[in-house]
User: What shape does this take?
Amino acid sequence: MNTSIFLRRVLPAILLVALAVGGFYWTTRTKPVAVVLKSVDRGIVESTVVNTRAGTVEACQRTRLSTIMGGRIEFLGVKEGDQVKKGQLLMKLWNDDQKAQQTLAEAQRHTASQRVKEVCTAADSARREADRQKSLKAQGYVSEAREDAARSEADARQAACETARADVAQAKARINVTKVEQGRMTLYAPFDGTVAKIVGELGEYSTPSPPGVPTPPAIDLIDESCLYIKAPMDEVDAPKIRAGLPVRVSLDAMPKQPLPGKVRRVAPYVSAVEKQARTVDVEVDFERPASGRLLVGYSADVEIVLSSSKNVLRVPTSALIEGHRVMILNAQTGKLEERKVKTGVANWEFTEIVDGLTESERIVISLEREGVKIGARAVAVEK
Assistant: This one.
């Protein structure tokens, strides 16, 4: 068989086999995975910590008032929501018996005061008589016994005068006692504020809170002019937090109004809540008031800024692989490759890149997609 005949008969078969093998390879090879790329840019990266459970808006001054003694409510001068001034009478229990005791004590003081006038006037007269007898004795007109008797009488009258004055002081003290007793049956506002809640109605019996018994207070008074946030932070983060650090406050009731604040105080102890992590309470002051009215008890979240780096290279934190690595797409080979990087300040959103990447370089951010792994063929797609 000559060469021309061989080529005419065998070559088409060889080409057919080659096409079949190529087609099989083309149809069975792994398709490139679609990945989303993002350029490395510059911006602010902050190291922050957040509360473990929802914080609460608290009032700087809040008091739950109860009378020291129990009794029937005779006067209720406010209602829930009223604005009150410091020293304003809020509630008074029945105390006619104590008023009667005060009236009796005042009458006794009046009687004692009149007795002082009587006895002390007689004492002054006896003292003058003793002085006259002393003068007459010096001239030899009276005996020594007469002069001694006059002096003793004056001393006795003076002692009676002092006793009468002591009775007046005792009567005044008794009046003060009755006033203190009446004070145990009244409630006055200790500061300007708003009446949040009242327990009891006119004519009902009000019971004070004994030690260790959680009896509801008669009147709950809140000063709304000064508010702050109290939030629990994980005990692991507590050593990093100090007074004066900037804070971003987010309120569930006002989701579009993040408010700036500052750490006022870090609790000096750890709170252990049953079935929950140990936490440290942090108090945060608002730097400016909210545009709407803040209510005591609103839930709030706080984000404390521990440190901040400005105008640095950064990548999304979710794009980092364990071991300080990122994934890039090699434009020449069309395959995914890893690259080691050195990181700096980080938070849940961004991580600072100190070394390993340059600005505008693109990295893979769709790590969660199936098939995205080192060495896989990939193509870039829009997010």
Notes: The first helix runs from residue 3 to 28. The two ends are 63 Å apart (CA to CA). The mean pLDDT is 86.
